[in-house]
Amino acid sequence: MNEKILIADEVSQLGIRRLESAGFQVDVKTGLSEDELCETIKEYNAIIIRSSTKITEKILSNAKNLKIIGRAGVGVDNINVEAATKYGIVVVNSPEGNIISAAEHTFGLIISLLRNIPQADRSVRNLEWKRNKFTGHELYRKTIGIIGLGKVGSNVAKYAKAFGMKVIGYDPYITLDRAREMGIVLMPLDEVFKEADIITVHVPKTKETYHLVNEERIQLMKKGSYIVNAARGGVVDENAVAKALRSGHLAGAASDVFENEPIVPDNPYISIENTVLTPHIGAATKEAQVNVILDVVDQIIAFFDGRIPHGAVNLPAFRGVSDDLLPWIDLAERLGKFVKDLVADRVNKIEIVYYGDIAKKNVNSISISVLKGYLIKVKGNYVSFVNALALANELGIRYTEIKESVDVDFKSMITVRVLTDSGIRSVSGTILSDQKPRIIEIDSYRVDAFPEGYLLVSRHRDKPGIIGRFGTILGKNNINIAGMQLGRNLSSGLAVMILSVDSEVNDDVLEELLSKGDIEELRSIYLS
After folding, report:
1. In the structure, what pLDDT confidence band is assigned to residue 119 with cuts at 50, 70 and 90?
2. Contact at 8 Å (CB) between 154 and 175?
3. Is 40 helix (H, G, I), strand (E, B) or coil?
4. What is the dihedral of CA 350, 356, 357, 363, to 10 degrees?
């Protein structure tokens, strides 16, 4: 092979040797600035990074020969994936290479906390022998509350059961059947905080999870309990935890991640003795570092062999998919994202129903796009067309593809129907002659809306004054309405409204809109 690979961060030599043995020219140039990388990247066909190097749109605009970016790790926050897709560059990562390391580190933090191991170590090094000062607690028969039951969280659950702990958890996306298989008792979030002796979080940092562990939830916890964060900085409100530690409400806290990294001098944990702090080393094991680089290297080799890499975060071009299906693939992903934001309950099954001409085609790529859109809202941007089905299976979400022969009002139509704990919800879409996607139905309400940007979706009493109230309140808060669609159901006396707005609607505005009691459901939806 004649392709040139740039290694921009330190990685295991095993990965470099594997690339070289496959015939690639490999150059290692670490610590490059953005401007230096803009110049250097021009001659390379692939680049491999870890977390230090940031791949910006400026860099990508200069990467005239770049075909693929390999991230040796899970997160792709340091890569502008949207820009990479625009330039036709594939982004791959290794979401499973460091799962065991992260789970084991979490458990190391838990044991260190309950047995005061770091504090006792420091004491001995000072030639002290204060055994009574470091009396700890057993894990046996303690209750651990795991927030987020993905691969890391489920492995932590496995280790906890081996220690004889009771395992409870919260994850709004995993099915009850899947939780039972793992021996985990699912509870509402606040109940987990009330029942657990130890809370450990394993969720990505999103708008919904930012400060998920906050002062209100900490106050629900038992006096003398513990909090561990080896997931992402910002999921835990560090100031709230520090306050509870100083008051004695919490017995201890451990963190491998921080809101500001590297840790800053005014971090509230630093001055508190009953904390265990590590510098974001959850994945820093020899095995994990080898696993992630070998995984990424194998994907790059597969890519240049003409195969689809299994960890592709994006796929700028669909190999083997006809051009006439591309608008439907885009619509499907938007419908998946839309239904995720529309539905508040746990989803147990996703049905994708095809009507009209589209039902006569091979729609597998369209169905996977629905799952991808839904799961991006759950798992983050590392969800791809390659791994979406596997991730749905991991959560226990069943998925079916149905082709209907009944006549509909459109030449072709897709309906995404989700079965939740409390009922069935659905959204339908189509592609019209302008080749742009439309949402044409929400549940039984007919609408006609573009699934893009910021949307407000309301189900409310069909009576005068409500639309005016939306305009008044949104206008007062400098939120411009770009478009409105209304669907009515005369038999129920309800209407559904979709407002397209120019900016995000925050929680305070949503509460003000809901304050009169005549709106049954209000959802803020963002479709990128």
Report:
1. very high
2. no
3. helix
4. 10
pLDDT score for 325:
85
pLDDT at residue 410, rounded to an integer: 87
Task: Compute CA 312 distance to the chain's CA centroid, rounded to the nearest angstrom.
Answer: 15
For residues 144 and 227, what is the distance between their CA atoms, to the nearest angstrom? 10
pLDDT at 25: 96
Helix axes 364-379, 326-342, angle to 10 degrees: 40
Contacts for 368 with CB less than 8 Å, ≥ 6 apart: 385, 388, 389
3-state secondary structure of 435: coil
496's CB contacts (< 8 A; 6+ apart) are 442, 443, 445, 447, 457, 458, 459, 486, 487, 488, 489
Q: How many C-beta atoms lie closer than 10 Å to residue 463's C-beta?
A: 9
Selecting among 50, 232, 425, 460, the annotated active-site residue is 232
| pLDDT at residue 320, as a whole number | 54
What is the Cα gyration radius of the chain? 25
- Coil/strand/helix, residue 160: helix
CB atoms within 10 A of CB 17: 12
Between CA 209 and CA 235 the distance in angstroms is 6
Cα–Cα distance measured from residue 388 to residue 384, given in angstroms and rounded to the nearest whole number: 6
Q: How far apart, in whole angstroms, are the C-alpha atoms of residue 227 and residue 242?
A: 11
Token look-up 């964060």 returns 229
DSSP assignment of 268-290: TTTT-SSEEE-SS-TT-SHHHHH
**For this structure, is 334 an active site residue?**
no
Task: Point out the catalytic residue in the list 36, 82, 128, 261.
Answer: 261
Residue with tokens 């509350």: 145
Which position among 280, 446, 469, 523 bears the catalytic label? 280
Helix (H) or strand (E) holding 508: helix 507-514
pLDDT bracket for residue 316 (50, 70, 90): low
Give me the helix-helix angle, 466-476 and 507-514, nearest 10°: 150
Answer yes or no: are the C-beta atoms of 442 and 342 closer than 8 Å.
yes
Strands (E), 303-407: 347-356, 398-404
What does the pLDDT look like over 227-242, one tens digit per residue?
Answer: 999 999 999 999 999 9
Tens-digit pLDDT profile for residues 81-94: 889 988 889 999 99
* Residue 505 CA from chain centroid, whole number: 21
280 is catalytic: yes
Counting residues of the chain whose pLDDT is more than 70, the rounded percentage is: 98
Asked whether the beta carbons of 528 and 485 are under 8 A apart, the reply is: no
What's the CA gap between 466 and 462, in Å, rounded? 8
pLDDT score recorded for residue 379 = 83
